[in-house]
Amino acid sequence: MRESAERFSAGSGKELRGNIRVSRVGLLPIEKPAGVEVTCGDGMVDVSGPKGGLGVPYDARLLDIVIDERQVRVVRKSEEKRVRALHGLIRTLVANAVKGVTEGFQRRLDVFGVGYRAEAQGQQLTLHVGFSQPVVYQVPEGIQVVLENPQGGAQARIVVSGIDKQQVGQAAADIRQTRKPEPYKGKGIRYENEVIHWKAGKTAVG
Prior knowledge:
It is a single chain. This protein is of the alpha+beta class. It has two domains: about 5-100, Alpha-Beta Complex (Outer Surface Protein A, domain 3), CATH 3.90.930; about 105-205, Ribosomal protein L6 (Outer Surface Protein A, domain 3, Alpha-Beta Complex), CATH 3.90.930. The chain has three helices and 16 strands. It has helices at about 80-100, 165-175, 200-205; strands spanning about 5-10, 15, 20-25, 30, 35-40, 45-50, 50-55, 65, 70-75, 105-110, 115-120, 125-130, 135-140, 145-150, 155-160, 190. The strands form five sheets. A four-stranded antiparallel β-sheet has the order 14-15-10-16, covered by helices on one side. Strands 1-2-3 form a three-stranded antiparallel β-sheet, with helices on one face. A three-stranded antiparallel β-sheet has the order 4-9-8. Strand 8 (about 65) and strand 9 (about 70-75) form a beta hairpin. The longest helix has 22 residues, at about 80-100.
């Protein structure tokens, strides 16, 4: 019996078409939880849920969005390389939007350094991180910043949350950038569980 040209490589997460490996992420349906509404039109997938709404733009010439009662599927219209790549990307963005409007996203940062501290009030985060003046970070619209009890010897823990995964990640990166962790004593702002590549100080080297 002739072997099918379309098959999956066991354990690789890749679809085999002939001798070409293609990500199969785009082929996976997106579960639509209760309370989530998904519509599409004019090149935009609109997702709304308990936490808010998001829009994901897509190229309707290259992809179809199929919506039923329980699932959303992204279907590509050709096997061109760029369409296959876009297929997986749009599927991931729509899945993130569904998760965002139901569960939301969070990124935690830990502040290390003697005398370092953080204060959150409204849409402003004030960071006392070793400069002559405190750094005031204006929290973007759609992002919330709160403080939690510090963990693991940190002086403060900052929690960045929102429904847009990319926006949450960017806000966390901007906060970390105000005082990136230095590699000798680790002072600064780190992502939760961030691995620091330590360097020996001059005394230790000597």
